[in-house]
Amino acid sequence: MGEAPQPLRVVVLGGGTAGWMTAAGIAKLLPGIASVALVESEEIGIVGVGEATLPHIRGFVEKLGIDEAAFMKATHATYKLGIDFRDFGRIGESYIHPFGSFGEEVQGVGFHHWWLELARHGLAREIGDYSLAVAAAKANRFRPPATGDGLASTYGYAYQFDATLFGPFMRDFAREVGVERHEGRVVSVERDAQSGDVVALVLADGRRIMGDLFVDCSGFRSILLGQELGEAWEDWTHWLPCDRAAAMPCTHATPDLRPYTTATAMPAGWRWQIPLQHRMGNGYVFSSAHLSEEQACEAIIAAAEGTPLADPRILKFRPGRRARSWSHNVIGVGLASGFLEPLESTSIYLAQMAITYLIELFPVGGTIDPRDRDEFNRLVDMEYDRVRDFLILHYHATTRDDSEFWNHVRTMQVPDSLAGKLELWRKAARIEKYSDGLFYDASWIAVYLGQGMLPEAHDPRTAMIAPDALARATERLRMAVTGEVATMPGHRDFLMREAARLAEAA
Amino acid sequence: MSAAREPLRRVAVVGGGPVGILAAIALRRALPGCEVVVVGTPASPAAFADTSPTALPFTNKLHDRLGLAEIDVVREAGGSYRLVTRYAGWGGAGQAGTLAYGEVLDPALKTAFARDWGRVRLPGEGASAAGSLAEALAEQGRFAPPPPGELTPISAVDYALRWHPAAYRALLIRHAEALGVGYVQGTLDRVEMGSGEDVAAIGLAGQGMIAADLFLDCSGPQASLLAAHPAFAFTDWSASLPTRHIYRAPPAAPVLALEDRLTLTEAGWVSEVAGRDGVHRMLGTPAPLPVETVTALLGAAPNAVIALTPGRAAAPWLGNVIALGDAAARFEPLGPYHLDLAHRQLALLLEMLPGRAITSHERAEYNRRSVLMMEGVHELLALHFAGIAAQRVFGARELPGRVGEVIDQFLRRGRIQFREEAPLLSQEQFALLVALGWSPGLPPVALCAGAADEAHARSVFANDVRAALAFAPPYAQWLAQAVSSAPAG
Lengths: 506, 489
Description:
The structure holds two protein chains of two kinds. Chain A is an alpha+beta fold. Chain A has three domains: 8-75 and 161-237 and 319-386, FAD/NAD(P)-binding domain, CATH 3.50.50; 100-147 and 415-491, no CATH class; 244-316.
């Protein structure tokens, strides 16, 4: 082996979720290659969005060698099988977008085509009845998926946790793996006169934190990437008008613990309910152009099922992404790089994705190759843009005309990249295929069908089987799903089985 | 309410080679009510997919799905197995490497992102990660196809099938006949357009017209139907793919081997595919060579000389005409990518099977993916000619698409970019790059792995090899027994 390169000095600016995830990831996975310092200020609060996650978070936790039970205990985590969307397509209708599939492909034809054919004959039940993840979620049951390729392996899971505890948990972990923490507010940024690279952060007390590579996790202020380097911001408000959230925890109103997040459409946005071990997280994500902050706070208080545990707090955000998330020697991770509202719980995923690519393309030895920077930006842009289109679909696929907000999103012109996908679905019930990035066929199908966007036509092969034979076959599948769910423990029961994953009573 | 689309009533497949016949089988099975007729146009020696004695592992899965049993290919079409391809000379004289199939990958971890979190490559592990089990088996001459649905020490080993091309075609014809696929022999001499961009009927010289809802062009590189379409356009690959002449030798003495070879010589490349009917050899060169030189390199006088202008149809689906395989893309037979491409395009057509009325959006999506497949092959082939040794023989060429980035990321980081619709899995592409003489850099994470991790990985691998060799029977013995035993049922 060659000589070990001099460790690269990485400075992470910002002690929120993204900041500590970045610091922990780099320090743990690149020992000897990078030394990590993190600058944060207690004067500055953290946004702390992202109480619900995607299954990818499990990879992050495992990769860092963190024990799942310890992690769940520290963050008051519960299990999550998907998201229940209510009133999106039409008031009174709901569907679950699961971390799992619907039915199975038969004779090379996707299950949803067979389901559409059954529906035409009036013989279909809800498509969620043919999904183990959906059926288990509805029954408030949970068990980790089986390995292999049977029915019991057709889903994944994530966590619902307290975002304000996840950051500190990652901080403790990061400190253990050698991340140096500097308390202080950045008052100026020193740059190399020739290259324009950032050289040091100057703190209010005069300390200079020198570094070779700077990761901007300063949230929306984007102190380095946005303010210092002036990296342009692509604004997506036109498509995703929600720019505020009113968040408020409350007590659990029922003994059951939902293994899923609930997203309920509201007149000027939507609200979340995220069950944690000892409380329920609530929040109203809304468009400030359509609703005042006071009105949103009143609405979330009125909507909470349990007893409020705090006053609502307002979070402000704006959807969009920096034109480049890596510029000079500064990489934006989290909100400093881009933001997509939490409708599909993608915030932590997007930070994790950027950290992953940064580690993969890490400038070992110190010299940043522009080709690596371009590659990072290409990948990050692709991920953001794909999630963006999927989120827009949730607003656009609606018949709601009960408020100005819904009239806007229903009638707005969507990005071309989404318009093509919608037409392909409408005309032929097909999904544009990609294997990189987030959200595959099952996710798109869940939203299309769940929000009442039925295609005009489906696969010709489905008409070649007699409807009653088709109905019998799908009924057998549904019975298998029901039977499997019956063997699963309740979500709360499963969670309680191991004391190691339970938080101290709040 | 969504309705099932009206199914195709009649499909005409132009081209009676294995690509056309398998396409006819696939459509007939998918739509038993649809009349499928194969138009057997004169075969071109440049139809590399149709004349191919082998494919890639994808074809085994497609065969299986279309009712073509692997054991029947072995018994009735001279079938044999390839575990590895040996590359020699691509990285300079004396350099050699091996490409095996498969990828040790949890199917749940599909994305590049998840892949990285799922598996870390350790220093020194490199190309041997996926390939070596197969290589060990090939070297020891031990193999039998792993029993399906059972976890065995060789289950992770993927393989390709070879066959006798004429016997393979005959086997496909028997299947097509049993399914009621029609057949007409003739030469296409006119195309009658219908409404819009659709073809209404095709005419055969001295015979009548054949009308259909959908036409598949499997006629080989001349693309006799698609190229006659008014909207046809050709995307030229000459600037990046340098092979202009292919010399083919008649099959030489049979060889029983689990490996094939691709060798770079001073005059061009030589491809050798071992078969029970004989070794199939081809030579590819940038310029014509004297027949003595060709004969020396091939070990026999060539029985076919093929001139090549590489490129692809700009859009392989125009109106109601879809070109598959050689009719959609022309390139050098440097590895079994022709038939693999044709079969992946056929699988895409089955996935997106249209109704009688075709919509422009499904055509656009099909073309997007089919073009990704073709450009994937284009870039993969260009990798072969990007090295100094190949450039000495073939001249320096421009690197198409992302080839420059692929090589750069590999050299500096040992990183394989994820690519949609790629012909090889990432681990396979990693192994190919090594086999072509490129030396992978280490990913940052791997730089941090300790010697203990490496030693552990090596000892796990050594155990896997021992278990695989103990489990797999001698290949020759197994094959002899499989061929001689009476067909089941």
